Amino acid sequence: MSTPDxxxxxxxxxxxxxxxxxxxxxxxxxxxxxxxxxxSVLVVPLIFAMVSLTQHLLxxxxxxxxxxxxxxxxEALTDVVLHIQTHRGLTNRVxxxxxxxxxxxxxxxxxxxxxxxxxxAVSRDKPQLALGKQWPAxxxxxxxxxxxxxxxxxxxxxxxxxAQVSQLIDMVDYVGETSGLxxxxxxxxxxxxxxMVSRTLPWVEAMGVLxxxxxxxxxxxDASSVEIASALGLLHDIQxxxxxxxxxxxxxxxxxxxxxxAWTDTQTQVNAYIxxxxxxxxxxxxxxxxxxxxxxxxxxxxxxxxxQKIVSQRMSVLLNERKQALxxxxxxxxxxxxxxAFLLVYALxxxxxxxxxxLSTLGRxxxxxxxxxxxxxxxxxxxxxxxxxxxxxEEMLTSLSALVAEVRSAAALVGDVxxxxxxD
Length: 424
Prior knowledge:
By secondary structure, the protein is an all-alpha fold. It has helices at about 20-30, 30-95, 100-125, 135-145, 155-180, 185-220, 225-255, 260-280, 290-370, 385-424. Helix 6 packs antiparallel against helix 7. The longest helix has about 80 residues, at about 290-370.
């Protein structure tokens, strides 16, 4: 039997200096702790990213819902503005001597009460819009303005109506702020919001003032140069505001969102009313009939309000589509994340069980070998490094077993020879 001249020593390659602390730490903790650490490093960031993304999507859904609440509030306040404008014009006609305006004024008061009740419901049901801070005092002032007991002179009543409309326009802007409409992040809905919240009501108010004051001048049949200049100035304001809305419609078109089909007809009707105003006051004196001018203004304002309602409806559709898309994203994220997390945990648990199981099998075999049992069979399934190590260890035990058998055989032979020599 031959023996090696010298024992071979196997040492691992020396790791880079910056890796030594980590390697030293890994060598001091158990394999189970290592696997748990690896699992934590993989799973915890995944869960954090999933929760953060879900929270972001939920925030976007809440923003869309808040904007939808804002749209309904703007519509309710717009109805109040419309009826106050109509009441202002009819009251101005009545106080200018037009008795035929009394009946429609009374009908407008009833419509105004219904519009006020609608805003009451919005203020009560949507506290996040914070209308409760301003609306009660505003409502009280409007009721006092439209009461039969109001005996203020015509100019004061007209100015008081206009002041209420101005405050309501400010309230619409406030709702745009509290609902998040003014901060809408998407171009198409932002341009629609701008028309609905910031542009339509000042535009309609200019037409309403012209309708009310112009009809009053026509009912009186005379006007000062200041009154004529004011009427012509209102015509210029209406024209300028119409141009601004048209610019927004072009912006909407450039963003791939078709402007409401009603815009062309509305613009045509507004331009026709501007032409009627120029005809009525362009000669420096009132020319025409008050009822006809008032009715033309009412029809034009009605077209403008109808256009605004179409804009708000389209705004609601786009916001609901955005909300639904976000809900779909959250659903897909939940499904994919849950499936991914399950597969990752399954893979990690499987890896841990396979690794620890193989190490346990090798450990038991090594213990048996240390106790002298070199005939144990090592069964490690697979084709990974642990399986190769198990097979190599089994081959080593086989070699050791053969070596021990050879030693025993040689020892027996030596014993027999010794016995023969003693006998001889």
